[in-house]
């Protein structure tokens, strides 16, 4: 079992990295969050998870031990493969994933490509007690669910020339009262409250 790799980033893509370890190049599947922390031709240390099947040998890499733990929790759920787990890790932060699972927020999990209603609910049922170690407080859970809507709304307002810092404070207040707002609703309310 390959537990970790330490070497030089030889090739870097959004979903994979090739790490040169003393002349041997290891092709490693990674999440977008890990990819953003790596730099081409720079030293790297990744925790890895090796998955060996009859038809394939795959290696997945993680910048943190916690990300690796979440990956292993996700692939332990029936119907969630390694690619789906990486998509979840690429789309949501560890706290967002743990918050959605702990709070039973299947809607947030379903925003990830390839995760349907049944799979999202299965993830919540199977992992609810296991994500407690990711230390997500109750008050933070709802704000994690809103981050995608909030980010899209703030980006839209930036295009209109409204500074992000100014609209972010208003967005936070609105989302506390109306956590189910769509991007359009949020943009309209921010504009009204300026």
Automatic annotation (TrEMBL):
Region of interest: Domain III: 145-194
Keywords associated with the record: Cytoplasm, DNA damage, DNA recombination, DNA repair, DNA-binding
Q: Any idea where this protein resides?
A: Cytoplasm
Q: Which domain of life is it from?
A: Bacteria
Q: Which GO terms describe its biological process?
A: DNA recombination; DNA repair
An annotated GO cellular component = Holliday junction helicase complex
In terms of CDD domains, this protein maps to: UBA_RuvA_C
Task: Pinpoint the Helix-hairpin-helix DNA-binding motif class domain residues.
Answer: 72-91, 107-126
For this UniProt entry, what is the primary localization, expressed as one broad class?
Answer: cytoplasm
GO terms of molecular function? ATP binding; four-way junction DNA binding; four-way junction helicase activity
Q: How does it assemble?
A: Homotetramer. Forms an RuvA(8)-RuvB(12)-Holliday junction (HJ) complex. HJ DNA is sandwiched between 2 RuvA tetramers; dsDNA enters through RuvA and exits via RuvB. An RuvB hexamer assembles on each DNA strand where it exits the tetramer. Each RuvB hexamer is contacted by two RuvA subunits (via domain III) on 2 adjacent RuvB subunits; this complex drives branch migration. In the full resolvosome a probable DNA-RuvA(4)-RuvB(12)-RuvC(2) complex forms which resolves the HJ.
Task performed by this protein:
The RuvA-RuvB-RuvC complex processes Holliday junction (HJ) DNA during genetic recombination and DNA repair, while the RuvA-RuvB complex plays an important role in the rescue of blocked DNA replication forks via replication fork reversal (RFR). RuvA specifically binds to HJ cruciform DNA, conferring on it an open structure. The RuvB hexamer acts as an ATP-dependent pump, pulling dsDNA into and through the RuvAB complex. HJ branch migration allows RuvC to scan DNA until it finds its consensus sequence, where it cleaves and resolves the cruciform DNA.
Q: Read off the NCBIfam families from this record.
A: ruvA (TIGR00084)
What information about domains appears in the record's comments? Has three domains with a flexible linker between the domains II and III and assumes an 'L' shape. Domain III is highly mobile and contacts RuvB.
- Tell me the protein family, please: Belongs to the RuvA family.
Name of the protein in question? Holliday junction branch migration complex subunit RuvA
Tell me the name of the encoding gene. ruvA
